[in-house]
Design brief:
The complex is a heterodimer of chains A (168) and B (279). Chain A has helices spanning 2-24, 33-44, 47-63, 71-86, 95-120, 127-158, 163-167. With 168 residues, chain A is mainly alpha-helical. In chain A, helix 4 packs antiparallel against helix 5. The longest helix of chain A has 32 residues, at 127-158. Chain B has helices at residues 2-31, 37-70, 74-103, 107-115; strands at 119-127, 135-138, 151-154, 157-165, 170-174, 181-186, 192-197, 203-209, 219-222, 234-241, 249-256, 265-269. In chain B, strands 1-2-5-4-3-12 form a 6-stranded antiparallel beta barrel. A 6-stranded antiparallel β-barrel of chain B has the order 6-7-8-11-10-9. In chain B, helix 3 runs antiparallel to helix 4 (107-115). Classes of the chains: A mainly alpha (168), B alpha+beta (279). At the A-B interface, helix 1, helix 3, helix 4, helix 5 and helix 6 of A face helix 1, helix 2 and strand 1 of B.
């Protein structure tokens, strides 16, 4: 049930993001809510589930974009799994950890993008300008992540005593 | 203990499979310049109706707020005037282009090509969520005769082209995406170049002759070469001319004439595909 609620919530956020994303843009840089959900899954859920969520939402993101198939599903799956693997060694409730992990994950996601777009798809991208956008997006995502994590944790709390949750 | 190990191995296999699937998609994308269309079609068919619903609800609410609650008369009048100015600008640009063609005795062909546009009205239902691509989703598809490579315009100018169509929805690659390239001419000097997106909402014109007398404020239109965009579509205005450097070409920055990020309604140009050839 919890996974169903999470999926519904994720898709709702995703639809909202694709519809009203332009309102969130600062200097052309937009936050990546799907990445934030992948990070959340890594920090608070099982690493395999985090990888699955990252892959599924990344795939949806790819399908609704143009010729980016595989990039988001790969990066978000890797990010969800990597953070999930580190979960037991870190204090995921710590605000600083949340800021730091979101920033690093944004940077990693961007670097995967840059590598694929420039190195493999041979797109003309100005690296310096791209990295600058990445820095702004990293800060933007980091600021948005903790309140979103809080909201998702509140929803998770509703299912806290359900046995399904313990399996996560 | 054994059960735990098996569970762990099972998890790793699942994750490795997911990563492998992503790599396969990526390889298909890079090597064959194609993506598995059925995956995209299924996802678009499932997600886009919700996008359309949410988009219409939000736009409707914003419209009600702006037009009836916030500023009942002024906002409406302002919008009408802006639309009128945009329409006149578009018409003016098309007329100037026709006038130039007239002088070069091409008027008949161009008149047919530019004045009888068969346009289909479409609403924007979603934007690209990655931030790294400039793409929008519209609520018209194959059922409405909207097909790949058709141009998409607004009253203010060119927006992009259709890159994928499903039965009810289509993806539009915006002219601001780095993967978009348009063969274009500077309207005043007739110098040709290629306009590409810079992913930051602006455009750049490349391969412009180093001798070109291009100036800030010059209007840039599509040349009609390349087979996708018709001749005379307004692309934008030259906003910066970079200093001449050694070499064969010079570069200029262009501000798109259409307000691409705030566009809600678009027009898909369908006529060139149905028109008879002029001999």
């Amino acid at each position: 049930m919890f996974i169903l609620v999470m999926t519904f919530l994720g898709i709702s956020i995703f639809i909202l993001e694709t519809v009203v994303i332009e309102f969130f843009a600062i200097g052309g840089v937009k936050p990546d809510f799907i990445l934030i959900i992948a990070i959340y899954s890594g920090l608070f859920l099982n690493k395999n589930i985090a990888a699955g969520i990252g892959f599924t939402f990344g795939l949806i993101q790819d399908a609704l974009s143009f010729r980016l198939m595989g990039i988001n599903s790969l990066s978000k799956c890797l990010i969800g799994f990597s953070i999930g693997s580190l979960r037991e060694k870190i204090l995921s409730e710590n605000l600083l950890v949340q800021y730091l992990f979101t920033f690093i994950a944004t940077f990693l996601n961007g670097v995967i993008f840059l590598f694929v777009l420039k190195g493999l798809l041979l797109m003309e991208i100005k690296v310096l300008s791209f990295l600058w956008s990445l820095l702004i997006q990293g800060i933007y995502n980091s600021l948005l992540a903790p309140p979103i994590f809080l909201l998702l944790n509140r929803i998770k709390m509703l299912y806290y005593k359900k046995p399904v949750f313990y399996k996560l | 203990m054994l059960k735990k190990d098996s569970k762990k191995r099972h998890g790793i296999i699942v994750v490795a499979t997911l990563i492998l699937i992503s790599f396969l998609f990526l390889t298909a994308n890079i090597k064959f310049w194609k993506t598995p269309a059925f995956v995209e079609s299924i996802i678009i068919a499932v997600v886009s109706p919700f996008q359309e619903l949410v988009s219409k609800t939000i736009n409707g609410t914003v419209r009600i707020w702006n037009n009836y609650i916030f500023l009942i008369d002024t906002q409406e009048e302002n919008n009408q005037l802006k639309k009128e100015i945009g329409k006149l600008k578009f018409q003016n640009s098309a007329l100037l282009e026709k006038f130039d063609n007239f002088k070069r005795l091409d008027k008949l062909i161009d008149f047919v090509n530019t004045s009888e546009l068969n346009l289909i009205y479409a609403d924007v239902v979603g934007f690209d969520s990655t931030g790294w691509a400039k793409m929008i989703m519209i609520n018209k598809g194959l059922n409405n005769s909207v097909m790949k490579d058709m141009s998409v315009v607004t009253y203010n100018g060119l927006i992009g082209r259709i890159v994928q169509s499903t039965s009810k929805y289509s993806k539009v690659l915006l002219i601001t995406d780095p993967r978009s390239s348009i063969d274009a001419v500077i309207q005043r000097t007739r110098d040709r170049g290629v306009v590409v997106g810079n992913n930051k909402g602006m455009l750049e014109m490349k391969y412009l002759s180093v001798d070109s007398d291009v100036k800030e404020g010059d209007i840039v239109i599509s040349s009609g070469l390349g087979g996708i965009y018709q001749k005379g579509f307004l692309i934008g205005t030259v906003s910066k001319v970079y200093e001449k450097k050694t070499g064969l070409f010079r570069q200029v920055a262009i501000t798109p004439s259409a307000d691409i990020s705030r566009t809600e309604e678009l027009l898909v140009v369908v006529s060139p595909f149905d028109k008879p050839e002029i001999k």
